[in-house]
Amino acid sequence: MTFPVVGMVGGGQLARMTHEAGIPLGIRFKLLSDTPQDSAAQVVSDVVIGDYRDLDTLRDFARGCDVITFDHEHVPTEHLRALEADGIPVRPGPDALVHAQDKGVMRARLDAIGVPCPRHRIVSDPGDVAAFAAELGGREGTGTDGFPVVLKTVRGGYDGKGVWVVDSVEEAAEPFRAGVPVLAEEKVDFVRELAANVVRSPHGQAVAYPVVESQQVNGVCDTVIAPAPDLDEALALKAEEMALRIAKELDVVGHLAVELFHTRDGRILVNELAMRPHNSGHWTQDGAITSQFANHVRAVLDLPLGDPRPRAKWTVMVNVLGGDYPDMYSAYLHCMARDPQLKIHMYGKDVKPGRKVGHVNTYGDDLDDVLERARHAAGYLRGTITE
Amino acid sequence: MTFPVVGMVGGGQLARMTHEAGIPLGIRFKLLSDTPQDSAAQVVSDVVIGDYRDLDTLRDFARGCDVITFDHEHVPTEHLRALEADGIPVRPGPDALVHAQDKGVMRARLDAIGVPCPRHRIVSDPGDVAAFAAELGGREGTGTDGFPVVLKTVRGGYDGKGVWVVDSVEEAAEPFRAGVPVLAEEKVDFVRELAANVVRSPHGQAVAYPVVESQQVNGVCDTVIAPAPDLDEALALKAEEMALRIAKELDVVGHLAVELFHTRDGRILVNELAMRPHNSGHWTQDGAITSQFANHVRAVLDLPLGDPRPRAKWTVMVNVLGGDYPDMYSAYLHCMARDPQLKIHMYGKDVKPGRKVGHVNTYGDDLDDVLERARHAAGYLRGTITE
User: Where do the ATP-grasp domain residues begin and end (chains A, B) (predicted)?
Assistant: First the structure.
């Protein structure tokens, strides 16, 4: 057998769905997972249980892998460099991945290549925040003092964690308590959030998925609509080109998600980068010719990429969050009987309130119908809709 | 967690692809496999290595499973009855499955419910064959002695194995040497083979996929075209109704494939039955709203079934057989670069000449194009096309 072994660090749902997408390719998939109960560890044959923060564990795991890729961005950069020095291809590589690990590095790099971002500054204390705010003062949506301002720890945040929106210098003290560097950003006056998903291979081949609208609830992705409704064609093209340029300039290999603010005055600004399959690309499993997971696998193996075009006029993804009702399986009866076209994707996770435990995809020609079906199913699975 | 455990007996590619289809449902999948190298065992987490012909092994395996289903039809009927007596749901159940295990039982039952089959008779020796042939004599395509006649062992045949086409009473000796019962059938004058695939749940819900054309080469399925081109709508409906009726009358649970002869005089006759996902349904992975594998899982769990309708005007599946060239992975470069819409499904099997090691699916609006793409890819992977 000459089929390669793809080593995936991290046992979450992204690894689970990447494994699923890799099965048809006949590749071998090896998983480094924190516990045997992790989402991906439940469905993968070749699982190593260990701590990705430990270099020896990583090295043992990487032995026998043809390439290493990731379910998350938390592997220390120096460990990735050590693996590369051992001769193991790491994709995306540490020099790319650092931009998804460190928001300060990311902002500096995007500035350098001329990609529009919210105004921002690394700040050391509340005084810095006040000074930064003062410079922003008087914009629409801010007081004369420039507040509110967004503060983010440069590392470790996700799904709204590690992010604060502060209305005064007094409130700005909290983010500094952990002693990690903090990035201050203007609070962008946006009408919606978009995401541009692209995939790039070591060869430099790249494909762009249609730009999607991503709707957040309480800082967590709730709904993704593909393609983004009523998006000016030139702006969509600009967003795709921007994502492709970031992928190229940062030498990203694999999937890159560029989260964007669509501002009230019609601009697009980069919010965050993720270098792995991303929640804003889950719709591709049922809505695109090639899913983000299949293309991520193809990219890290330096195989030619698959067609990213949509298969339906509209595809909608809605996340399924844990509710008060732990038995999601019994909800299948209603959901599947109501909508025989519904696509359920569950992650094998125990239900905890607010935890992402799955998502649903729907597609069709009528956006209102497609949205209603996805929202109903997600709400019913969560237990917030009972009829 | 209330998610059920589906126990799959047999580690072949059908189990592999059923596991793949079960991952999004969040169910637990447990596999009984002959060896750890089997196609499905490579990609499933929870694998028991053992012999399905041993009742104790089956019983141990079934403990902790909510339902048992199958990758093949070879589990002894009495073992299935024993599992049922233990209280384990077996789907399809032994009373249904016997019709896919024993061609003599199948023919008798289809006769009884009035489903058209080739003329047939259980025969004990070459003399019986000659007498059967004489009754068929004078039809188009046969000599005055009624030969050729098709002889089949009633159990254990597949992919052309256990089947003989004999031209004389002298040639009819061979099939009897194994000492197993033999079924004699008229050699049907058919213009093509069709397959009607349906899925049925314990509740009695059933869905029918569009009838497909199945092209065999040397007795092995080579190409499947969905839907069957130029098939009279009334005949297609008749084939679907026939398959649904067989599923109901035989109390099939799960996927049922009904292989059909489309005769020169415009009739359809049942050739074989298979009660599991089937090669003639592999196109559904990329060509239908719900794949045969997903619907098989839903059926054995008594969940509402998914929509079986096609997503494309035409979908073509071509099997990838092993050739002289063992390195199929390197052929990915050409195949994927040539056709970014190509869907490759490999089974993780070592390449042996003539062995089914995977298949490809293509879809689109132009049948000639879709056929050419699938055939080129399968031929290139096999090594019979080199440019």
Answer: 107-301
CB contact under 8 A, B42 and A45: yes
**Domains of chain A listed by start with CATH number:** 5-90 (3.40.50.20), 119-186 (3.30.1490.20), 190-382 (3.30.470.20)
CA angle B40, A291, B198 (to 5 degrees): 55
The alpha-helical segments, DSSP class H, found in B233-278 are 233-249
B356 close to A (CB below 8 A): no
> What pLDDT tens digit does each residue of chain B (387 aa) get?
489 999 999 999 999 999 999 999 999 999 999 999 999 999 999 999 999 999 999 999 999 999 999 999 999 999 999 999 999 999 999 999 999 999 999 999 999 999 999 999 999 999 999 999 999 886 766 677 889 999 999 987 666 678 999 999 999 999 998 788 899 999 999 999 999 999 999 999 999 999 999 999 988 899 999 999 999 999 999 999 999 999 999 999 999 999 999 999 999 999 999 999 999 999 999 999 999 999 999 999 999 999 999 999 999 999 999 988 888 999 999 999 999 999 999 999 999 999 999 999 999 999 999 999 999 999 999 999 887
Which residues of chain B neighbour A298 with C-beta distances below 8 Å? 336
Cβ atoms of residues A385 and A328 within 8 Å? no
B176-200 exposure pattern, b = at least 16 Cβ within 10 A, e = fewer? beeeebbbbbbbbebebbbbbbbbb
Partners of residue A24 in chain B, C-beta under 8 Å: 20, 285, 343-346
* C-alpha distance from residue B366 to each of A261, A306, B40 (Å): 40, 20, 34
Partner A contacted by B266 (CB < 8 A): no
Q: Which residue has the tokens 């199913």?
A: A377
How many Cβ pairs within 8 Å bridge chains A and B? 126
